[in-house]
Amino acid sequence: MTSTIELGEIVGGGPAMMNLAELLATRLLVQGNSGSGKSHLLRRLLEQTATLVQQAIIDPEGDFVSLAEVYSHLVIDAAEHTEAALQAAGERMRIHRASVVLNLEGLDADLQMRRAAAFLGGMFDVPRAHWYPVLVVVDEAQLFAPAAAGEVSDEARRSSLGALTNLMCRGRKRGLAGVIATQRLAKLAKNVAAEASNFLMGRTFLDIDMARAADLLGMERRQAEAFRDLQRGTFVALGPAVSRRPMTVRIGPVHTASRSAGPVLEPFAPPSELVADLILAPLPEPEMMMRPKRPVAPPAPDLITQLATHGAALAEAEPEADPVDPVERRRQIQAVLREVLTEDDGGFRPPASLYQDFLVRCRIAGFGREAMDMRAFRRALASARSGIDVEASETPEWQEAEAMASALPEDMQGVFLYLARAALVQSACPSDGAIARVYGTHSTGRARRILAWLEEQNAIVLRLDGAGRRRAAIIGLGWETLPGEPGL
Q: What is the rounded CA–CA span in Å between residue 43 and residue 46?
């Protein structure tokens, strides 16, 4: 089986070929203004590789659902499924090696980011036995990895940016080859764009985008003006999978059509009736009171709905459990949570993955399917990461510390409570390495930045003694740790 595909033709003569095996190892970045032919390029790439490699497409506008008619992709409408179901779908599509289009059309930006992050997280967290090659195409990547905060919530932005960063930075070893397309490089997070080694740069007009495109292609700044003159469907290509030197490529034809084709210019014929009577006619009284809702067609059956139906049947068949003392039940659930954290390197797994593992263990232990919702789980997870024992977590002092932590971002609560627990029991100030593990990273530099941020928020105070050993005091509680070595 060949691993070479034809993108189109080189301007000046000859076919433009792409080495698929090299693409899977080195990733691809596509840039071009609206109307430059980005979606056409992605469709050509997907059609050429549909029979060669498994595909996952993050589709914010529903442009690529037509691939399912020809190439048997499974179309998942993200509006009809929860984040937990989409994460499970991301895992299963890799296990069963099915190509998938995640259709995010109709969702607002916040929900698009959350559900795309859940799906990508599921793909990323599958066991090593299922690390098969997957071409992961993300259209309009600046929506999911923005360079600056926008109107979406901080939690949605962090989860989406983290998922796309994982795809581009750590996905190669897991078989995930990221292909990201963006209208503007300046709006795309730099750490995401920097991980691509192959580039296809289309028409763009803004100076900042032309300058960044020229830098990525190794061109001189004076050559950047050439991006304004590119025709629709023409791109400058560079990278180990396409060419070692910049070359101009005209993308070839495609066999499927987008649902959202551009406007077609037709002769304009104004209405013959009075326009005011047509547009400003009063509404009938029933229509003003209540507009009928359009009937919603039932979703097509797929793996997700089958599993949900099966799970509901199992829930109905489960006998009612005997009443349990609420305090004892809470302690048992906390014990299950600590098991999840201590097994299989749980401290470095994302909360969504830990939550799924936690729910499975709770069902095995007889606590039912709804032992704890995601919001309560995140609060309990932060407390469990601190290392506090079950008895101490019931005291008023610790509950006050948890109340203070609730005012912080969720990813910072575990570190704050970890320091609070050390101060409460009068142990040494945790090292940078220990703080990094609680946060879920191996970077001690990030741990130091987290401590600096907590100090800026007036949550803690750090001070060094004469020997350079660090103490941490919790503002408002009057607790302070013993001296500890910061660099271990």
A: 5
10 Å Cβ neighbour count for 188?
27
Q: Tell me which DSSP letter residue 177 carries.
A: E
User: Does CATH number 1.10.4100.10 belong to domain 407-488?
Assistant: no
- Strands 15-19, 74-77: pairing is unpaired
Q: Domain 4-251 class?
A: alpha beta
Which residues face 267 on adjacent strands? none
Q: Which residues pair with 484 in a beta bridge?
A: 470
Helix, coil or strand: residue 171: coil
Alpha helices in 171-245 (DSSP H): 190-193, 207-217
pLDDT of residue 317: 47
Instruction: Count the Cβ atoms, other than its own, within 10 Å of residue 379.
Output: 16
CA gap 72, 445 in Å, rounded: 46
Burial 72-82, CB ≥16 within 10 A → b, else e: ebbbbbbeebe
Regions of the chain where pLDDT drops below 50: 287-290, 292, 294, 300, 307, 310-311, 314-315, 317-322
What is the model's pTM?
A: 0.57
* Residues 102, 79: Cα–Cα separation, whole Å: 10
Query: Quick one: which H or E segment has residue 17?
Result: strand 15-19
d(CA 124, CA 166): 8
Residue ranges with strand state E in 222-321: 234-239, 243-251
Per-residue pLDDT, 261: 54
CB 425 within 8 A of CB 472: no
Token code pair at residue 461: 């105070």
How many angstroms separate the CA atoms of 219 and 211, rounded? 9
In angstroms, what CA-CA distances link 61 with 147, 161, 165, 232?
21, 19, 22, 20
Strand partners, 101: 57, 75
Q: What is the pLDDT of residues 97-107, one digit of tens each?
A: 999 999 999 88
Domain boundaries, the chain: 4-251, 324-385, 407-488
d(CA 417, CA 18): 51
Domain 407-488 in the same topology as domain 4-251: no
Cβ neighbours, 10 Å, residue 335: 13
Assigned token pair, 460? 């803690």
Distance CA 418, CA 229 (A): 57
State the DSSP code for 373.
-
